[in-house]
Amino acid sequence: MLKLTKTQTFLTANHERFRLLPLSQLAAIADTQETSLKSQTHTQKPLESHSSLHIDPKYFVSVLLNCKNIFQIKQAHAQIVANGLLTNLFVSNKLLYIYVQHKAIDEAYAFFGGMREKDPVSWSVMVGGFAKDGDFVNCFRTFKELTRCSVQPDNYTLPFVLRVCRDRMDLLMGSLVHGVVLKSGLCWDHFVCAALVDMYAKCRVIDDARKLFDDMHKKDLVTWTVMIDGYAECGNANESLVLFDWMREEGIVPDKITMVTVVNACSKLGAMHKARFVHDYICSMKFSLNVILGTAMIDMYAKCGSVDFAREIFDGMREKNVISWSVMIAAYGYHGQGKKALDLFPMMLNCGIMPNRITFVSLLYACSHAGLVDEGFELFNIMWDKYGVKPDVKHCTCMVDLLGRAGRLDEALKLIENMTVEKDEGLWSAFLAACRIHKHVELAEWAAKSLLELQPQNPGHYVLLSNIYANAGMWEDMAKVRNLMTKRNLKKIPGWTWIEVDSKIHQFSVGDKSHPLSNEIYGLLKSLIEKLELAGYVPDTNFVLHDVDEEVKVGMLYTHSEKLAITFGLIATPEGTPIRITKNLRVCGDCHTFIKFVSAITKRSIIVRDSNRFHHFIEGACSCGDYW
DNA sequence: GTAGGGTTAG
């Protein structure tokens, strides 16, 4: 609270001494347009005398709204005190809000603490201030204090608190706040409801989010948007697009933000027809491409398999920032076009854009997938000295991957041993994958041990280690790993593959017979495999990890989801067009070999996307190399 | 005094 002293200075709540400026000067600083009130200050006696002159509170509010920095806010604050307007809740709430808007949270909190009277607005401005500042501790504390003071949380306060729960993925706290929402009777408020849906969706409790969403009588655009985004985040991008269609059928017109989430869903799905449709829709709605929507679209086309379309969008963007450049670099990277990724780097610097840590991850990743060892090393060596980006565990992972793929396991090992940053599961996985490629069982065991310590519940790690033992013919060790998995009640994550034909997504899992064309698919697959075997394809049963007989195993191997999807692609898509499939997990070695043979025999080019990397198969060769 | 959006790493 400000206090007037004899020397006409003010002691602020933060114990700073602040000299009072004449009100006329304050008006000039704040550049207020409220001239009627400004003229009042000129015509009347100077206000420095702090007479009991009546000033309209609206005048101070307009001054506050025009403040451009903390200095001006404090001047206005001092004048408010001097003119005895602190008791006016409208004025003091506005002052609090202006402090928060200028991110002066400490000043805001100090002022808030001194407020003699607080109404729900004061509380929500403060709670919102902490929420926007990312200060969850004070946000929750203030919220608790509010409930203790018997103040009813309102439709402003609750979304702020829910936002913090969402950002922290704090489902427990989110559920507690949901309880408060139910008590408050605000569960049908748009803002509260959208925040609840968003919180549950981002906490990955998508069914609860959907239930709330379905129960809403009238859903506004924001609620549709958070639900669409929620599905994409939870790995069900198909449902995002279903919702988008439904939303438009309901007559809701999307805006740019909604389109960003829809574009994002297309990226996750890797569905080119959908991508084209969404792009056409964006054009038809005459949405100009801002940097966020443009960047999302680069990513969408790249992840739908067309790095060239991505580049077209990129080239057409008027404004590009470091994210746009990084996305384009990453796109070339996972399409195996390392040189093009590297070419973008000097262009980016020429445009005055400074690279960040993700730019370097993308560059190093591009190097490792194109075998550009020297170029990768050079970037890794200069990133800190020249660009001030300190190599972290992700950059080291790229380097381990780069060296590992190139067969330089000893150097990768040295890098791991000399690392000062904490090692994570990604790093060990990269090293383990390299050990598998180069059949180094001993080092693989060492990496796997660290990996299993870090993530004992991830079945993927057990599968990888088991495959390494299998490849080395170490059946007893393989059995041990499999037993360990059983003991720990871990099951292999189900793999599924999807293919888009005529704007429809067809999804397959191993041995899947649910597709209407199942008979045709299995018939063609059988004859295809016979042909492939004549051409030299030998199924590798090491890639099936099931406790079943060898014969059954071969059967399962023949019906891998990738094989079913590709066979369906051969039936359902015209000759001469590429077959694009997407898999949720990595394509296993056996399928990789299978696809090579299919592309050789059928002369169809096949583009496979798995975990965001692309394998382009043309006439029996894979552009991303034979190992992955 | 309120809500929703873009990148990377096996």
TrEMBL record:
GO terms for biological process: chloroplast RNA processing; RNA modification. PPR repeats lie at residues 119-153, 189-219, 220-254, 290-320, 321-355, 356-391. Residues 536-628 form the DYW domain. It comes from the Eukaryota. Keywords: Repeat. Transmembrane segments: none annotated. Pfam families: DYW_deaminase, E_motif, Eplus_motif, PPR, PPR_2. Coiled coil: none annotated. One of its GO terms (molecular function) is zinc ion binding. InterPro entries: DYW_dom, E2_motif, E_motif, PPR_At4g14850-like_plant, PPR_rpt, TPR-like_helical_dom_sf. Belongs to the PPR family. PCMP-H subfamily. This is DYW domain-containing protein.
